[in-house]
């Protein structure tokens, strides 16, 4: 005989070698009652760890700089029309112990808590060093770098010999610093080592960078300002104000200036600004900080 339908051998043949897979029960989905009913908004966040990390980063950044007069902190304060766009760009998953990036938007409660924490740190730091401190939070419109350089321009008009250090990782800050045309302004960027939490600073002179851009475009400005025919009328409407552009009517020198005689053997000596122009922000002696 053949095995009966109810025998063990026929049951094993029907089930096959992968029959054990069906014996494990599948995990059931949790009932709806186990799911949290309260939805955490982007403003309802625990900021203790975030603010502690922010204070630690600020301490590490300011340790090698040691400001002597004023500490100015600036936070982006974008207009209301730009807030929805920023929120849409920052909609990302919020992991454990991490602040949701959409909350880092002007007008949110989390941003106000960050501003309060930054002001608390600034007061303590300024008190220890005996200096003054200022904070422009998200309630004030304009981008952070715009507010920083507005303060630098006002301060430079009062005391041109003041040295400024702008700490930022935004490339817009560097570009806006090139248009500032103020001496003794240094752009400071930083890198944080994830393992050791060590901060490495990189310092660049915005004045030297602006002069480098000016001399690299020297030939183009000269060609646009003077025609190739000597004695011809200049195209003044084709060129914006450039204090470093030549004022001589010699078109041949403007077309092919060659080595700059104003530099000579001293690399720190630069061309003088035209008379009556650029005296407030541009000096007539040296362009590089000593």
TrEMBL record:
Compositional bias per record (Basic residues), positions renumbered to this chain: 21-30
Spans annotated as Disordered: 1-37, 248-290
Any one GO MF annotation of this record: RNA binding
GO terms, biological process: nuclear-transcribed mRNA catabolic process
Residues covered by the Xrn1 N-terminal domain: 102-185
Start-end of Polar residues biased regions: 1-10
Protein name per the record: Xrn1 N-terminal domain-containing protein
InterPro entries: 5_3_exoribonuclease (IPR027073), Xrn1_N (IPR004859)
Organism: Eutreptiella gymnastica
GO cellular component entries: nucleus
